[in-house]
Amino acid sequence: MTNSNPMRVAVSKVPEVTVWFWLIKILCTTVGESFADWISAGLGVGLAATAGIFTVVLLVVLAAQVWLPRYVPMAYWLAVAVLSVTGTLYTDILTDKLAVPLDVSTLAFAVTLAVVFAVWFVRERTLSIHSITTMPRELFYWLAVLVTFALGTAVGDWTLSLTGWSAGVSVLLPVTLIALVVVGWRIGMDAVLSFWLAYILTRPLGANLGDWLAASRAEQGLGFGYGTISVLFLVAIAAAVLYLTLSRADVMDVGAVAAVKRTVPVKVTVAYYATVAVAAGMLLFWAHGQPHRAVAAEEEPAGASVATTLAPGGARVFPAADINGFRIITADTLAKITAGDQAGAQARITDLETAWDQAEDRLRPMDADTWSVLDHQIDVALRSVRSSEPRTVDEKQSLSTLLVSLQ
48 and 193, same structural domain? Predict the structure, then answer.
């Protein structure tokens, strides 16, 4: 006899892994990163300060999540969104402020995640998401989630750096890898390993998807803009979480807590995922050897006739709020150069690059010629500050020229 109305019990502090789980996870990744960029660059708060703010927010949100006696969709997904932002910021600080190479940060986060999993397993004898029923396991879970976001960010950025792919093309790699993970899980490979591999890969997928939808058509995107995409995704997240709150469709069944049996031997599972990893590595190695769009974009065509200067205040054709924001960041960068703070200048000018890229869809149609001149001046400033052997005189000249245009 079967029970036509099975009781659903909140035995775990996390949701059941369904299509809703993966959908909201990807949306949180995209919105979280866009929100962080808006605060860091759009509002001129800066990378380090934004990371500090979100670290405090993260501690508050996680404290509330851990304090709750059961899974609550709104609290859980808020924690995931904040973790997405914070993990991304930590990777960006290593890359942009501390100049840690992406391959090094990728390896460091991979080792960190392995250590977290090892300690978690030794203590609890399981890494299953279905076992998050005690505070120690929940703390291990959230620590692992934080590191996966940082690792996913590093892997995604490293991939773009190696290949020079556009965001639209870059989406295809994590989509393919996730599909292969799903195939492995469906034929009986270890469910826990498959879950965590997919969890890591959804980070670059969400970020690349957001960039593809938001980037301008000149950058091979769909041109919807970061603001529009962020609002749409935020609404989608809110609607999905509201549905799950009312329907309780993602509360785990009692039977879901039972151990998942493997039908494929461990050796076969390891061989399968190792083959997938090697194939992905070979693809990246091949793509790295192709001409890089990112490198080519920074070089002017030989013999090109391009205006490189504007009259003082020539950028006033654009909204004052935008120009003021660019000017503040440029002035901050110049002040750091003058003070001998090269690392600080490199971190601050990244805020300018982010703010400028996000504003392109709005500003370029207003005056394409003025936009092109400013774009060139910003590129020159970026190259001078980020040079492996920076010359203070070149840095000051490029930043001062840009400031004249932004008066």
Answer: yes
Distance of CA 395 to the CA centre of its chain: 29
What pTM, to 2 d.p., does this model score?
Answer: 0.70
Helix (H, G, I), strand (E, B) or coil at 376: helix
Cβ burial of 60 (10 Å; 0-12, 13-18, 19+) is exposed
Paired tokens of 314: 């020539």
User: How far apart (Å, rounded) are the C-alpha atoms in residues 297 and 262?
Assistant: 49
Rounded to the nearest angstrom, the gap between the alpha carbon of residue 132 and the centroid of all alpha carbons in its chain is 26
Q: Is the residue at 307 inside a domain? A: no
| Statement to judge: residues 272 and 325 lie in one domain | no
Residue found under tokens 């290593």: 94
- Number of structural domains the chain divides into: 2
3-state SS assignment for residue 253? strand
Residue 306 has pLDDT above 70, yes or no: no
Calpha distance 360→350 (Å, rounded): 15
Tokens in use for 320?
A: 């004052």
Long-range CB contacts (within 8 A, 24+) of 272-275 = 272/184, 272/189, 273/181, 273/184, 273/189, 273/193, 273/197
Considering the domain architecture, whether residues 93 and 131 belong to the same structural domain is answered as yes
Q: How many Å apart are CA 139 and CA 94, to the nearest integer? A: 24
What is the Cα–Cα distance from 280 to 205, expressed in whole angstroms?
15
- Partners of 253 in the beta sheet? 8
One domain for residues 61 and 111: yes
pLDDT, tens only, 171-208 = 899 999 999 999 999 998 988 899 999 998 998 888 78
How does pLDDT run across 107-122, given as a tens digit for each residue?
A: 999 999 999 999 999 9
Helices (H), 100-225: 102-124, 135-163, 167-186, 191-214
Question: Is 226 in the same domain as 359?
Answer: no
* Containing structural domain, residue 373: 314-405
Distances (CA, A) of 203 to 57, 116, 210, 349: 20, 19, 11, 25
Query: Amino acid identity of 148?
Result: T
Q: Which residue has the tokens 């058509």?
A: 217
